[in-house]
Design a protein that fits this description.
The complex is a heterodimer of chains A (501) and B (358).
Chain A (H helix, E strand, L loop, with lengths): L5 H21 L31 E2 L5 E5 L9 E2 L6 E2 L4 E4 L8 E2 L4 E10 L5 E9 L17 H10 L12 H4 L10 E6 L8 H8 L1 H15 L4 E6 L4 H17 L5 E6 L8 H9 L14 E5 H13 L5 E7 L7 E6 L4 H7 L9 E4 L6 E3 L12 E5 L17 H5 L6 H9 L3 H6 L10 H5 L6 H37 L6
Parallel strand pairs in A: 1-14, 9-10, 9-12, 10-11, 13-17
Antiparallel strand pairs in A: 2-8, 3-5, 4-7, 5-6, 7-8, 13-14, 15-16, 15-17
Helix pairs in contact in A: 5-8, 11-14
Chain B lengths: L16 H23 L1 H24 L10 H11 L7 H17 L11 H12 L7 E4 L5 H6 L3 E4 L6 H7 L6 H6 L8 H6 L11 H13 L6 H17 L4 H6 L5 H16 L3 H8 L10 H21 L6 H18 L9 H4 L1
Antiparallel strand pairs in B: 1-2
The chains are: A alpha/beta (501), B mainly alpha (358).
The structure holds iron/sulfur cluster (2 copies).
Chain lengths: 501, 358
């Protein structure tokens, strides 16, 4: 049978090609004909490197001076309320929060204020900072007493006054989170204990060392916000967590006789299990739509360290002045978890924690997947800073990029269901429409795509740049619209001359 | 202290482009070695010539275009091996070198190098030869006589042989219900190799396509190393098998609806697809050429569509066209359609689509 030959097929193919080209130009927005329901697929398995999880945290106090940045949360910065020469205690207010989104900042040492000056933040922005010389006595402000809470408003005010922000890394003001808009009150409280970033174990140590305060914090929030149920979610590479909390909860049930509506649930160990949207999905099967917040699906998510601080604050009334921080990396002599005053300089911290055994090549504030590589280490640590990683020559390598081979790995691992390689191409050709088509703004910057790319492309970086391009374009469009409206107004004003009447 | 500054993430997976290519090369080794056994040392020599010319063309063309050297990514090596494995054993060397030039310079580097070619270089070059030198590309040989090193190197011991595909139609239509399964698998009919020798690779054909066993060993390695996902090969071979079963020379519904149903009759219906899968380059194509990252879709859904398309086109070409072995044409057509498949198989973002939330 020789009805057709191969060249007919080639011609046919090219015609289908042309046809589809024409159709696709018109349909460029509707490219989801075959899209199916999508779960938390994707994710990657970086080496855990949880080298420090069995080491009890060590308290470090031996700091000659601290530098407290006056902007440690998402929102407008604080206003300095001390002057050089003032004596401050642990817990004395140094940065007042004027804006409702801002969170006050307190001194973490007792001593004398030396200077209020501008420093460059790890992100490269100028930020006001208070330099305080420590007298090494750590005298707590005599005005401090455990808070007294009677109403929900009291509770929210107290949370704000404590200086609490999200301690998992995001630094979102907790009092805002606890106060969702009317009609969006959460029906479940999720405690994020996933700690999916490699190296970091500070939340884990927090759970091992202070389960009582964590459960206190959970119960307080459930009580004042009237949330009937709480779930603690942790990754199954930390099986002890389950025992710790069931033990703690059982103790309380025995004491009071009442059941506690707190669930402890183990999750699959996969990065980014601890990303807010992924955690919500894993624990409740609810999906937060792009651009929406957890309260839109009726949940409240708090980091386990944040909750622990709340429990601690309710007992003692000492504001957020210290935190647990993981120091790890091959260049360190003695990796571990350390309980340090906020504002301690990273340089001093590394020295106090045992120093380095080789010249550090890369120092990261935060985790290996999402942290910021620092170019200087004389800045003070901030509230949301859960780790400092000091990489030696073994770990610090910047790979060379090669062309995308379209292997599809980045697409397969993206937990948000995006096409990182498409975004990368669009960013590089400054194609804003392409960026919007590939939904660049939905990216959570988790870094899975970059991690898995065999061509070592800096996809996440390219995506961040793409977001900047889109934001600029959106602003431009908004301005254009405003100008157009104004000129229309002027034009319509001319049509009705005032001297007609 | 000098500190490196780079954007997050600060840790990377160990996998690299060259490690992937290295795995593909390793996976092609069983087939290459078998081609040496089946077609003599000339086959090995062909692989070496093809690889060498691909590497040289890659290096020189990058140099002339003042681009960086990309030999380290080993993609030219993979193209070289695949190219040779797709050729008949008695192809003149100058044609092989011409094909290497076409693959590397015209198809790959003119379009911007690795990652930017829109069709698979090795397949495009094979089709280039099929169109330019149809006679050479359709004489098939096998080794005969005793082994002699120099004869083997020159290919002087190769004698021409009919390709099994050509006699397929007669074979199947003449298969009587009385044939039992074992005679189907190991029996010979009309000078055509048995199914078993087809599977093992004792037949004429392109040097790398003949041994299904060797190819499957390589494919298993690729799966084990997670270099390829099953989507394309399974969809390709699956849809092809289904089509042959339904619309082949002895369709399965004829068997099922006949009054005298017997198991051997059923086995006979499955004989045709099995023989079809073992003949031509379909297994080589499905596991090693259709799965080429650059020219296949990004998502698994897209890959399934791509595979089904390949299966359908291969079926149409094998049954309704004048040239046997439509695998290369099928794959290259689907390569051309890949951007469109990618567009219609965009993943749905977590939590909903952009226009749904407005
Ligand atoms: S960084 Fe963005 S695009 Fe990349 S995997 Fe994460 S969410 Fe997806
Ligand atoms: S992972 Fe890298 S090479 Fe693979 S498709 Fe994505 S960008 Fe391309």
């Amino acid at each position: 049978m020789t009805l057709l030959n191969d060249f007919h097929f080639l011609y046919l193919g090219f015609h289908i090609h042309l046809l589809l080209l024409i159709i696709s130009v018109e349909q460029i927005q509707g490219g989801d004909i075959l899209a199916a329901v999508h779960a938390f697929r994707g994710g990657v398995h970086p080496k855990h490197n949880k080298n420090t999880d069995v080491l009890p945290s060590i308290k470090l106090d031996d700091f000659h001076e601290v530098e407290i940045l006056l902007h440690q949360h998402i929102g407008p910065p604080c206003r300095s309320v001390v002057k050089p020469g003032d004596y401050v205690y642990v817990g004395t207010l140094v940065g007042a929060a004027d804006h409702p989104m801002a969170v006050p900042i307190h001194s973490s040492v007792s001593g004398t204020v030396r200077e209020i000056h501008y420093v460059v933040s790890p992100n490269g922005n100028p930020i006001e900072a208070v330099r305080i010389e420590s007298d090494a006595k750590f005298r707590v402000d005599p005005a401090i007493s455990p808070p007294h809470v009677e109403t929900k408003q009291d509770f929210l005010d107290m949370v704000r006054a404590s200086g609490m922000v999200g301690l998992g890394g995001a630094a979102f003001p907790t009092h805002i989170k606890l106060n969702p808009p009317k009609g969006k009150e959460p029906d479940v409280l999720l405690i994020n204990a996933a700690e999916c970033e490699p190296y970091i174990t500070s939340d884990y140590r927090q759970m091992s060392e202070h389960p009582d305060e964590i459960v206190d914090g959970i119960l307080e929030i459930m009580r004042w916000l009237n949330i009937p149920k709480a779930i603690i979610g942790f990754e199954d590479n930390k099986p002890l967590v389950h025992r710790i909390f069931t033990h703690e909860i059982a103790k309380r049930v025995y004491k009071t006789g009442a059941k506690l509506p707190i669930d402890v649930r183990s999750l699959k160990t996969i990065y980014p299990q601890g990303a807010e949207k992924m955690l919500i999905y894993s624990l409740t099967k609810r999906r937060v739509p792009p651009g929406k917040l957890p309260h839109d699906v009726g949940v409240l998510v708090l980091n386990v360290s944040t909750v622990r601080f709340l429990g601690y604050y309710m007992r003692h009334g000492i504001p957020l002045t210290r935190r647990r921080i993981t120091l790890d990396g091959s260049a360190l002599n003695a990796p571990g978890n350390f309980n340090v005053p906020i504002g301690a300089r990273i340089k001093d911290l590394i020295d106090a924690a045992g120093g380095t055994c080789e010249e550090p090549q890369k120092i990261i504030m935060g985790g290996a997947m999402m942290g910021v590589a620092l170019d200087r280490i004389d800045c003070g640590i901030i509230k949301a800073n859960n780790a400092i990683l000091v990489f030696g020559s073994k770990e610090a390598k910047i790979p060379a990029e090669s062309p995308c081979i379209r292997c599809g790995r980045c697409v397969a691992v993206c937990p948000m269901g995006l096409m990182p390689t498409g975004i990368d191409v669009s960013t590089r050709s400054r194609d804003v429409e392409g960026l919007e088509f590939f939904r660049v703004m939905d990216c959570i910057e988790c870094g899975c795509c970059t991690y898995s790319c065999p061509s070592k492309r800096f996809l996440t970086q390219s995506i961040k740049n793409g977001k900047v391009l889109v934001r600029a374009e959106l602003t431009r469009r908004a301005n254009e619209k405003k100008l157009l409206e104004e000129s229309e107004k002027k034009a319509s004003g001319k049509e009705v001359p005032s001297d007609l009447k | 202290m000098k500190l490196q500054v780079s954007n997050s993430p600060h840790v990377r997976d160990d996998i690299t482009t060259s490690s992937i290519m290295r795995d593909v090369v390793i996976a092609l080794m069983p087939a290459t070695v078998f081609s040496g056994y089946m077609f003599g040392l000339r086959a090995i020599l062909m692989v070496l010539v093809s690889v060498l010319s691909c590497l040289v063309f890659e290096y020189v063309s990058r140099k002339i275009m003042k681009r960086n050297n990309t030999l380290y990514d080993m993609s030219a090596l993979v193209t070289g091996i695949l190219l040779a494995l797709n050729m008949p054993a008695n192809l003149p060397f100058y044609m092989l070198i011409l094909a290497a030039f076409f693959a590397i310079v015209v198809v790959k580097q003119f379009f911007g190098g690795l990652g930017n070619n829109f069709v698979n270089p090795a397949i495009a070059a094979r089709i280039f030869l099929v169109i330019s030198f149809p006679k050479y590309m359709s004489t098939w040989t096998v080794r005969s006589g005793t082994f002699n090193f120099f004869d083997s190197l020159k290919g002087a011991d190769l004698v021409s042989s009919a390709t099994p595909l050509a006699g397929m139609a007669d074979l199947v239509s003449s298969a009587t219900p009385a044939m039992d399964v074992s005679s189907l698998v190991i029996g010979h009919k009309d000078d055509l190799p048995s199914l078993l020798s087809m599977f093992l690779g004792e037949r004429a054909g392109s040097i790398g396509e003949v041994s299904i066993l060797a190819l499957l060993i390589g494919a298993a390695y690729l799966f084990a190393r997670k270099v390829i996902t099953p989507a394309i090969p399974v969809a390709y071979l699956g849809s092809f098998t289904l089509l042959v079963l339904l619309f082949g020379h002895s369709p399965i519904y004829d068997v099922l609806s006949s009054d005298t149903f017997s198991w051997s009759l059923l086995a006979n219906a499955f004989y045709e697809p099995a023989y079809m899968l073992c003949s031509g380059g379909i297994v080589l194509g499905a596991f090693f050429m259709a799965t080429d990252y650059v020219t296949s879709p990004l998502t698994n859904k897209g890959r399934v569509i791509f595979g089904i398309g390949c299966g359908l086109l291969t079926f149409l070409m094998r049954y309704y066209s004048n040239m046997p072995g439509g695998v290369s044409f099928a794959i290259i057509l689907m390569n051309i359609l890949t951007p469109h498949i990618d567009r219609v198989t965009m993943k749905k973002p977590f939590g909903g689509l952009a226009h749904e939330r407005r």
